[in-house]
UniProtKB/TrEMBL annotation:
PANTHER family: SUA5 (PTHR17490), THREONYLCARBAMOYL-AMP SYNTHASE (PTHR17490:SF16)
EC number from the UniProt entry: 2.7.7.87
GO biological process: regulation of translational fidelity; tRNA processing
Molecular function in Gene Ontology: ATP binding; double-stranded RNA binding; L-threonylcarbamoyladenylate synthase; tRNA binding
Name of the molecule in the record: Threonylcarbamoyl-AMP synthase
Provenance organism: Pseudoalteromonas peptidolytica F12-50-A1
Annotated localization: Cytoplasm
NCBIfam families: L-threonylcarbamoyladenylate synthase
UniProt keyword Nucleotide-binding present: yes
Functional description taken from the UniProt entry: Required for the formation of a threonylcarbamoyl group on adenosine at position 37 (t(6)A37) in tRNAs that read codons beginning with adenine.
Cellular component terms per the entry's GO annotation: cytoplasm
Amino acid sequence: MGEASLTTLHLLATDPTAVTQAAELARDGQLVAVPTETVYGLAADANQPNAVKKIFAAKGRPADHPLIVHVADKSLVTQWAETLPDYFDALADAFWPGPLTIVAKKRAHVSDVVTGGHKTVGIRVPNHPAMLALLQQVQSGLAAPSANPYKKISPTTAEQVLFGLSGKIAAVLDGGSCEVGLESTIVDISSPTPRILRAGPITKADLEAVLNMEVEEPDVHTVAVPGNVKAHYQPSKRLTILSTQALTSRLQLGCAPNTGILYYSSEIESILSEHRDINELVDLKLGAEKTKYAQGLYYGLHQLDQSSATEILLEAPPRTPKWRDVNDRLMRAAAQ
C-alpha cells in the first residue's frame, strides 16, 4: 500500500496505550507525528535511514535539509555527537528539556539522510511528557522536523497535523496544544564561540547569561539548518504584515469582505469593534505579551487560513531582540 493511502491513526496521549502504540510504529519504521513544547514534529527512528526518508517524502522536503534528532536526556547526546565543547553541560543543564537545539560534529554512524549530507547533527531534548515517554520507549533518537507540508505553517495541534498530512503518515500522538508555539533556538556549538543559527524562544541574552561568554548571532548566514529558507511557515492565502498605524488606516478606509485580521493591540481591537459588521471581517486576537503572542501565532494563522478569509492582514509585533524569533518567522511567512 502506498504512503499516500495510509490510514492515519489519531492516538490520544491521555490513553495509557497510546505512547506504546506510537513507539511500536516508530520501531517498525513508520512515521508518527509527535507533540513537543514548540510545535508538532514528524518523527522517524533516526537509526533507520529508510524510515527517515519517508519524512522527506511525506513533507515534500528537499533531501539536503537536515533534521533534528530528539533524545530523552543529555546523557544520550554523545551517541550522536562526536565532540562537545566545555560549555555544553552548562547549556544542557540550563535549557534542557526545552526549546534549544545544538549543532555539533556528528558521529560516523549518523546517517547522511538525517543530516542532509552535512558533517554536523542537530540534537534536542524536548520538554513534553508524551514525547519524553515515547523517546524512553523507542530507546533511539527520533529525527523530527515540523509535522507539516514543506514551507507551510507549522502545526501546534494534532488537528492541524491531520489537516496537512492525513493519509501520508501512520499516526499522530495527540498531546494537546503546544505550550511554546514556535520552533526551537538552534545554536552551533561545533566551535569555541557558540553561534545562533535560528532565532527561537531562548535568546542571545538568555544564552550569554548562562555561559558568561559572547554568543554570536549573525543577521544572515548560509549554514543549512531547519527553517533557513526565504519563504517558509506560509499560509495558503496571501499574508501582509502591516504596522499598527498602517493597519488602522487600512481598516478605516474599508477592507474587502472576508478579509482576515490577526492582531494584538487595543488600538486595532477598538477599530475592529466599529467596522467588523460592516466589512464582514474575519478577525482573531493574539496575546500582547510576547510569550502569549508566540504561543498563538501559528494557531491563529491556521485558523484564518482555513476560514472564509480571502487574504490575511497581520499587525506587526515589536522589533526588539526579545521578539526576534517571531519577526523571523513572519518575514518568511509573508515572503513572496
